[in-house]
Design a protein that fits this description.
With about 270 residues, the protein is α/β, with parallel strands linked by helices. It has one domain: 3-Layer(aba) Sandwich (Rossmann fold). The longest helix is centred in the C-terminal third of the chain and has 25 residues. The two termini are about 30 Å apart. The structure holds hypoxanthine. Hypoxanthine binds next to strand 5, strand 8 and strand 9.
Length: about 270
């Protein structure tokens, strides 16, 4: 990653929008319908933005959606880039840096995840307290882009504490139960084995997924405050005696969609 690429990509996006959103939202698998709630929409397709990779996952639209969610200007990523698609980790930082250049200060990152904590159930929403980067790679590897942030960014409050509390209060106010925990990133794309899920539990993971961590590292690098929400779409491998599949992930996120939309919309109102 290099500042000239970041500038060129952000300039392209800036040329196509009329608003300057302070809030960014990344929509995970099956959660893309939140974008339908956006008014005065302007779409910028990833494939038109210089240097952005192309997203290849079914059920991911592949575009920035600008507009109003309630009264607030937002930018959503409907579809995201994954490491398992063959992208370089560093390239996963670019959409975050574009948001930074546009003026985003708070980022709500969402994902579909497997429940590792056995007290969770499919359909739960988990507020992410912290993460474990088991992809064992990092989007900041390479020459540091000093304009975006320092070489060794602090990750001790990677998920902003005030925004975490705000989100918890919102959940209480609107009567949505949320659980909390640590998100554990595996590269995928194969789901985990039961033995790996036992390991993840021993290491402190409550939910497992194949995204989010690179974006959260990039956001912390450029000092965007993060809220993380996992939709627990399935119990992780070996917990229930049944195989996992992407269809189940999408079906559960579809069932949770309304609750998820209400929750995120209300958080946006309160930020
Ligand atoms: N494992 C990894 N990623 C996932 C899962 C899972 O069980 N469910 C949804 N995304």
């Amino acid at each position: 990653m290099n500042i000239e690429y970041i500038k060129e990509a952000s300039q392209y996006v800036k040329n196509h929008i009329k608003t300057t959103p302070r809030i960014g939202i990344i929509l995970g698998s099956g959660l893309g319908d939140l974008a339908d709630q956006v008014k005065d929409k302007i779409i910028v397709k990833y494939s038109d933005v210089p240097y952005l990779p192309v997203s290849t996952v079914k059920g991911h639209a592949g575009q920035f959606v600008f507009g109003k969610l309630g009264e607030k200007d937002v930018v959503m990523m409907q579809g995201r880039f994954h490491y398992y698609e063959g992208n370089k980790m560093a390239d996963l930082a670019l959409p975050i840096y574009i948001m930074k250049m546009i003026g985003v200060e708070e980022l709500i990152v969402t994902n579909a995840a497997g429940g590792v904590n056995v007290s969770f159930k499919p359909g739960d929403l988990m507020l992410i307290k912290d993460h474990i980067n088991f992809a064992c790679n990092n989007p900041l590897i390479g020459k540091n882009v000093d304009e975006m942030g320092e070489r060794f960014p602090d990750m001790s409050s990677a998920y902003n504490k005030e925004l975490f509390e705000l989100s918890k209060n919102v959940s209480k106010k609107i009567g949505i139960d949320v659980v909390e925990g640590t998100y554990f990133m595996m590269t995928g794309p194969s789901y985990e084995t039961p033995a790996e899920i036992k390991m993840i539990r021993v290491l402190g993971g409550d939910a497992v997924g194949m995204s989010t961590v690179p974006e959260v590292i990039a956001a912390n690098h450029c000092k965007i405050k993060v809220i993380g929400i996992s939709c627990i779409t399935n119990m992780a491998a070996g917990i229930l005696e049944q195989p996992l599949n992407h269809k189940e992930v999408i079906e559960t996120s579809n069932k949770v969609k309304d609750k998820f939309i209400r929750f995120v919309s209300e958080i946006v109102k309160e930020i």
